[in-house]
Amino acid sequence: MADLNRAQTELARSNELLTLFAGQVSHDLRSPLTAILANAELLATEPSVVADPAASELVAATYDAGRRMAGLIDTILGYARVGSELERSSVRLDEVLDHVLDDLGPVVVQRSARITREPLPEVRGDTTLLYTVLQNLVANAVKFTPPGRTPEVHLTAARDRDAWRITVTDNGRGIPPADRDLVFALHARGDRSVQGSGIGLATARRAVEAHGGRIGVDDAPGGGAAVWFTLPDIHDRE
To answer: Which fold has domain 2-80?
Structure first.
């Protein structure tokens, strides 16, 4: 009984710290994001932009990405609060991945990354949190590929008993077995030569586990990492 009480106390303390952390992060992000959205709206009305379809499309994409980021901040902050509930609905992961690849377009182009995909399933979950899972895994796969090597990222989905297993495979350095649990810890940095906060994989794990799934890392064929996560099959919940 004493062990259970200690565990509950530690969980409550952990949730409180996470809530404070999420609140600070969301506060720090909102001001620059608000400025980005306001500037994008103003830029969209400029005559030179209105007259240029390519420029108009780029401004619209910037605004849409900013709006999705605002929604992501709100959802993660809400989920970090103790007792908050996910907003579950039917989610087509292929559509979520489309948005992810749109938002990561500049990074993909900068690294000349090759991203291939197989059809992803429809699941029941929170669209915004599942977006952040895929966004973090694909972004990491591109970012952590060593300089001088063209990033090759492949997404697959397969049935795993009563769940779907989605895997993001890359051709990077890979993750040693001893570090595979540690990379999902808050502020963990697998490669300090790459810029980042160490929050992404911890957020992905929390989002996946909130959906009743699991997340982990295996070796990729020919080197690199195969980061996978599972989500319950929507048809098994009906």
So the answer is: Helix Hairpins (1.10.287)
